[in-house]
Amino acid sequence: MVRSQNAFLTYLLPVLAVCAYLFLYIPIIILVIFSFNSSDLPFAWEGFSLKWYHALWASNEIWHALKNSLIVAFSSVVLSITLGLLFVFYSWKNFLHHFFIGFYASLATPEIVIAVGLLSLFAFFSVPLGLTTLIAGHTLIGLGYVVPILQSRFDELDKKYMEASLDLGATEGQSLRYIMIPLLLPAILASSLLVFVLSLDDFLISFFCTGGSTQTLPIYIFVAIRSGATPIVNALSTVLLVVSSALVLIFSSLKIKKADLLQ
Amino acid sequence: MSSIKKIVAKESSFFWAVPAVTWQVLFFYIPVALIFLISFFRAGLAGGFPTATLENYIYFLGPSFFLVILRSLLLGLVNGILCLLCAYPVAYCLAIKINRFKNLFLFFLILPFWTSLMVQVYSWFFVLEHNGLLNTILLKLGIIQQPLHLLNNTFAIYLVMVYCYLPFMIMPLYSALEKIDRRVFEAAADLGATQWQTFIRVTVPLSMAGIRTGFFLVFVPSFGELVVPILLGGGKQLFVGPLITQYFLSARNPALGAAFTCISCIMLLIAVGLLYLFFKKYMGTTTAKGKI
Prior knowledge:
The complex is a heterodimer.
Chain A: H1 7-34, H2 51-58, H3 60-90, H4 105-108, H5 111-124, H6 131-156, H7 160-167, H8 172-201, H9 204-209, H10 217-226, H11 231-262
Chain B: H1 2-16, H2 18-38, H3 55-59, H4 63-97, H5 102-114, H6 117-128, H7 133-140, H8 154-179, H9 182-190, H10 195-206, H11 208-223, H12 227-233, H13 240-250, H14 254-282, H15 285-291
Helix pairs in contact in B: 2-14, 4-8, 4-11, 5-8, 6-8, 8-11, 8-12, 9-10, 10-15, 11-14, 13-14
């Protein structure tokens, strides 16, 4: 029996999918090509050159922004993972467990509301804006991802291992250190990477929670675009693209390992 | 004494869970409550006891500000629909049709999701510029005689919004479509359904959870979007995000800004509620199952 083929599903849908991929990648590809441009104008092609990468390497401003971005990203990863892990592990048996839903709220709120709220909070208690306030904000955003991810993995786990360790005389701390952390490791690594990337890319919270003195990479690019971009931004964007693809590769290899662990 | 120590040791574990809760309350719930409070007080009150007032809310009674909120809601709604239309073919092909190189295609799908929003926005300038890619191609093909003004208008905002939010739609759709048991398709074919009928009556209803998740993931952040309207809209049309920013950062009038934030959030909540009811009534999986 010849099954009737629907033209839309058989031919048009794959074509549309290819178009969507082109839509996603054409701007990025042009951006990468233009980062090797020798022209002084960001959008006009002259010839091949690496001079903007040299300029990027020599730019103090960008190194400073990168340093700030990395400090904030690493601190918020460490803080949100530590707080999230302790919450998931120690709220298991008591009433704090119900607060779990409370962490979802920051995901469901438009980021600008959180940013404006944090700004008002810091202004109200006259906390000087800077790296510290930035870390506080990014850790909050991180918690919104870490707690749900860790909690769902924790709920899937068989609690027998933990109870067995407690029965055999381990303290709760030992049980966390030797049983739970190894079992949760794939989820911990995955959510660390996620928080790291989110913090590195974040613009809104950074825009509101830094005083004029502290600059992160997204803010640098934003200001550059508004005040007329130089081709250095092309080179910087290309480097950031390469970094994100490396992180995605690490992330997807983590997933494969997680699948191995389950088998 | 020892029993007290035991109780303390047993109960102290509870305190380890407190820091995360404190953080969430201090940096999320208190700021949100603070915004709500500020919105009821006059700005720049020098001395004297601050008294609650509704002035800030009365200031926003009028069609012009209502229009800003409606425009943002429309942006979220249209962006959600456009993303769904763009994302469904990709998610469908990837989850159901393709078997070879699936991981490679997935990698290229996840990559934009991890790319900095600022880089994504910046890359569009190369396409939309006065002598950018699109104008060059259209001029070469002879479709237009003069370069078009593609930047700083509503078209540019919508185009780049779809671009930036597409991954948020594709991911939930893909995971919903991938979960569908393949035997369902065979069953539908055996029972005499054509490919198209299977798609409309089986595949789409079964992926409805993904559609709903993706739609809200696009709709809610689009409503408060700041970067795209500022950089690509040229400030011609006001949206909620840029207006809130103006009140807080340039106009230095947090009281008015807070009131506007509250009004916007209430409108957003109403819109989300209506959308939820819409999904439940017209696109619920249960009614679709009933039809089959």
